[in-house]
Amino acid sequence: MAKGGFPGMGGMNMNNLMKQAQKMQKQMQEKQEELAERTLEMTSGGGAVKVVITGKKEIKELKLNPDVVDPDDVEMLEDLIMSAVNEAIRQVEEMYNNEMGRMSGGMGMGF
């Protein structure tokens, strides 16, 4: 075994391994910050409800087409809003998992 190395690590010493881990951690933190600033837009009901969400899962905008506002059918509007919001959240999680998965080389780091 090479001095300061580990079997199967090609002679990589602990200092180099730690530097690589710190570099990867910094890159992942930067990527998380970048993703947090992104916005995604989701719609439901053929565009009747639009939701804009950030990577932090904060709703920034909610727009309703006035034609969908029916006082006799509030339940349908509630369903459309829930659908758009839930899809927006799902898309943010998928965005994080895809981007972080690429960075971690598929090491199974879910966010």
Automatic annotation (TrEMBL):
Keyword tags: Cytoplasm, DNA-binding
Predominant location category: cytoplasm
GO cellular component: bacterial nucleoid; cytosol
GO molecular-function term, one example from the UniProt record: DNA binding
Chain segments carrying region Disordered: 21-41
Lineage: superkingdom: Bacteria
InterPro entries, sorted: YbaB-like_sf (IPR036894), YbaB/EbfC (IPR004401)
Protein's job: Binds to DNA and alters its conformation. May be involved in regulation of gene expression, nucleoid organization and DNA protection.
Subunit structure: Homodimer.
Database matches in NCBIfam families: DNA_YbaB_EbfC (TIGR00103)
Protein name per the record: Nucleoid-associated protein CLNEO_01700
Organism for this UniProt entry: Anaerotignum neopropionicum
